[in-house]
Amino acid sequence: MQACRHQNEILMLDVLGELRDPRMRREWEDHLKACGGCRRERLAVLGLLGKVKHAGMPPELSAEQADAMAKAVGWKLRNERIQPVRQGGRRFRFMPVFASACAILAVLYLGYQLLDRPVGGRDNEMAMMPQDLEIIQHLDLLKDMQTIEKLIQVVDIPDPMPSTEQDAPETQGMHRDDNRKSYAS
């Protein structure tokens, strides 16, 4: 027979000594008289708590051990008071300073090594070809050339009506190409 599930909270309060309500205490004791599973569960939990208390308790010291420990602590405290206080009351610790300096040097070295490398994953993708570098250097000139090409297209709009050179006096001395654009000869 197992313990009743709805009685778990009251069981824990009882074994921990926290069941202080007299009405709940009477109901719990009446239930324990009738339910064998809860009685067994209560005894098992009490046994477990006893083992935990026993395992957690430090062993008793003998009088000689307690005296020896008290003398050792007193000796340590007296020696700390007698030691001269160094400058500023602090003790210089070499190892943390040395470790910090080594870490800083390692970071600087890695930064220097990675300085010439590209940020991307592969070197061959990020390497710039000489032609690409030249294009980037002359980018302003290329932009100006695009503007000139657009200007030429606007100025050289073909006439909607085909005409001859004799019809318009401003076209005298000019010739037309295959696309019917006029150019000075």
How would you sum up the global shape? elongated
> Which runs of at least 5 residues are low in confidence (pLDDT < 50)?
none
Query: In what order do the strands lie side by side in the largest sheet?
Result: 1-2
**What is the β-strand count?**
2
How much of the sequence lies in strands comes to under 5%
What does the oligomeric state look like here?
A: single chain
Order of helices and strands: HHHHHHHHEE
Mean pLDDT: 78
Distance between the termini: 119 Å
Helical residues, percent: 55-70%
Helix segment count? 8
> Quick one: biggest sheet?
2 strands, antiparallel
Radius of gyration (CA) equals 49 Å
SSE-based structural type: mainly alpha
Describe the structure.
By secondary structure, the protein is mainly alpha-helical. Among the domains are: 5-56; 128-157. 60% of the residues lie in helices and 3% in strands. The chain is built from eight helices and two strands; from the N terminus they run ααααααααββ. The chain has a two-stranded antiparallel sheet. A hairpin with a 5-residue loop joins strand 1 (174-176) and strand 2 (182-184). Helix 1 crosses helix 3 (36-56). The longest helix has 21 residues, at 36-56. The chain is elongated. The chain starts with 7 loop residues before the first helix and ends with a strand. The model has no long low-confidence stretch (mean pLDDT 78).
